[in-house]
Write a structure and sequence with these properties.
17% of the residues lie in helices and 37% in strands. The longest helix has 16 residues, at 31-46. The chain has one domain: Hotdog Thioesterase (Thiol Ester Dehydrase, Chain A, Roll), CATH 3.10.129.10. It contains 2 helices and 5 strands, in the order E-H-H-E-E-E-E.
Length: 140
């Protein structure tokens, strides 16, 4: 896992399991959204911010407004993936997350293969009313 702050995007590693694949051992297209979601959660966690804590203590949570995904190649059973997450503030209440998923090389010295590019627009909302709220400085 790579933490941002040094200019590199946050990256989180995940393995492809049976439950992620279709009958042919290829990752089912909707499951890429799960990998992207988990990487955004781990991006927050790397900043010391927990989703549950945000909702209970700060009274905010994030909701996805839009997702644009471009599938470039398929991940398969047992692949090791690297999922990146870069946040760009959009408005006072929304942010755009640029995310990518790569297949890590099977052998040392190999090259990563880009599998997915996505842009996720999310809004910060009040946990009770679901009305938009300003994104706190400690999140971005």
């Amino acid at each position: 896992m790579s933490a941002a702050g040094d200019g590199t995007p946050f990256t989180w590693a995940a393995r492809v399991y049976w439950e992620d694949t279709d009958a042919g051992g290829v990752v089912y297209y909707a499951n890429y959204l799960r990998f992207l979601e988990r990487a955004r959660t781990e991006w927050l966690r790397a900043r010391g911010v927990m989703q549950q804590q945000l909702a209970v203590e700060k009274g905010v949570q994030f909701m996805v407004l839009r997702v644009a995904v471009e599938y470039k190649a398929a991940a398969r059973l047992d692949d090791l993936l690297a999922i990146s997450c870069e946040m760009r503030p959009d408005t006072r209440t929304t942010a755009v997350f640029a995310q990518r998923i790569w297949r890590e090389p099977a052998a040392p010295g190999g090259r990563r293969e880009l599998l997915v590019e996505a842009e996720v627009r999310a809004v910060c909302v009040d946990a009770k009313t679901l009305r938009p709220r300003r994104i706190a400085e400690y999140i971005s």
